Amino acid sequence: MRLTLFVLLSIALVALIFTASNTVYFFNKQYTLSSQFHSLKLLAQEITYHDEVLSMSALAAALDDDNKWRDRYLKYEASLDKSLQKASELDPRIARFFEDTAQANNQLIALEKRAFELAAQNQRAQAVQLLKSDQYQAYKMAFSEGLTNAIDEVLKRTQFDINKSQEQRGFYLILSMVISFLFVLVLWYFLIRYVRLTEKAIEGVAKEDELSGLLNRREFNRVMKYEINRAHREKSLLMLIILDLDEFKRYNDKYGHPEGDAVIERVGKLLTRLSRRANEYAFRTGGEEFAFVATCDNRENGLKFCQSLCEQVAQLNIEHISNPPHKIVTASCGIAFAKPEEALLTITELYSHADKALYQAKHAGKNQYAEYNHSTVSQSEQQYS
What we know:
Blueprint: H1 2-63, H2 67-90, H3 92-120, H4 124-131, H5 134-207, H6 217-233, E1 237-245, H7 248-255, H8 257-273, E2 280-284, E3 289-296, H9 299-314, E4 331-338, H10 347-363, E5 369-371, E6 378-379
Parallel strand pairs: 4-5
Antiparallel strand pairs: 1-3, 1-4, 2-3, 5-6
């Protein structure tokens, strides 16, 4: 269960990281595309402006023989080249435009430089006529329209990429969130299950005796209170058997406590096997003391079961040379009944009755049982070897 939780937690964490990474990626992509879009718009304006300045500078130089117009032309020619170069680097698709309009651009430059030469030779009329000629205007229109079309096409594609990026971002963001949410739900389910199993395990530890696997003394008190009231309410006969291993302190002294623990464990398994049905409970109430609580049809069946309990402990055939004359591990039992026709007994009273019967069985020679009676304790005269 812990491994499952760790794996699910790791997957959920990966899903959350994936969601965050996708979000960052698409936001960064959108920012890059938006920046590119705005940069292209600014460059388009710059290129158009520089191109117009070149044309006006060449025309002004043809009308006015002043070197400032040539200097202005050269300045903006360099600026135009830089803007075109920057646009090519920003989007490779614009570079194809330069290849397509290279002839028109070269012809424009050649005609404008020719106009400057004519103006320098004081042939201004011819320079103006050259700049207003159909040939010049055709080249200029080819360059300007090609530039405009290329920039517009790139801007449209960039805007399309931005829109597509937004759609993809939304899709992957929702998908990642759904996946993360599902993993969190599954993780939450297993976490709740793990907590419940842990609580159940803790509850089991609180209820059970670790060595024997039987219910402990705390559960004995709780179950006894419930069963006494239930049996009295339902007019049922309730029996309590206290079982004590004979000469068990000597067993520990002779064979050691690890071997003694093994005996407790084997007796615990025996009592567990005998308490399978509803309203049958087996407990370890002390070191070598056990208790068995159950409802029975009649007194005779209860006594037979108590006798069988002594026999089955002996049948485990565990060596105990310090327990003469049997030389094996045996048990003595005291049995008491809570009868429906009699007054309701307390836990202490019923336990005291069974304990007194156990004392009588021990006193009579061990490896036998005794029944508690109001006036006297009658003992079974049969002993088991």
